Amino acid sequence: SGLPRMRRHEAGASRVSELRHVQRPQGPFRHSQVRVMTRIALDAMGGDNAPGEIVLGGIEAAFGLEDIKVLLVGVQSQIEAEFAKHPKESSAALKSGKLEIVHAPDVAEMDESPVSAVRKKKDCSINVAMRLVKEGKADAFVSAGHSGAVFPDSP
């Protein structure tokens, strides 16, 4: 790409082989109203009080954070049940395009072995969310769930 390479000593972490400095657009469009939407894959099934608190946080993020699109990854029926508790907000966020459900039929449970959870459940919410990032369909992944299951799945 056309981004300048950073020297290794500028990169910081020793395990980071190369970083690229992302620059703001140059030329006639640099001050335009065109905005890039950052897509965040949010593990709706992970964490205490999930999916309720996670879905509510996703709805709030879709409204409160400019230039953010939240991809709620999890069991669609459970996410929709949470939407029913906040019909006005969830409907508006969905219609605005800043909130989307990505169905993941399986869940990595807290009492499961983390490695076996992500290996045996290829369609658990953690795997599906990570896959979205890997495929370029999401820019970041966030989970409040089983951290032991997140790390084995990290690239």
Structure in words:
The protein is α/β, with parallel strands linked by helices. The protein is built from seven helices and four strands; from the N terminus they run H-E-H-E-H-H-E-H-H-E-H. A four-stranded parallel β-sheet has the order 3-2-1-4, sandwiched between helices. Helix 2 links the parallel strand 1 and strand 2. The longest helix has 13 residues. The radius of gyration is 18 Å and the shape is globular. It starts with 7 loop residues before the first helix and ends with a helix.
Strand and helix map with partners:
Blueprint: H1 8-11, E1 38-43, H2 52-64, E2 68-74, H3 76-83, H4 87-96, E3 99-103, H5 114-120, H6 125-134, E4 140-142, H7 147-153
H-E order: HEHEHHEHHEH
Terminal CA distance = 21 Å
Helix content: 25-40%
Q: In percent, how much strand structure appears in the residues?
A: 5-15%
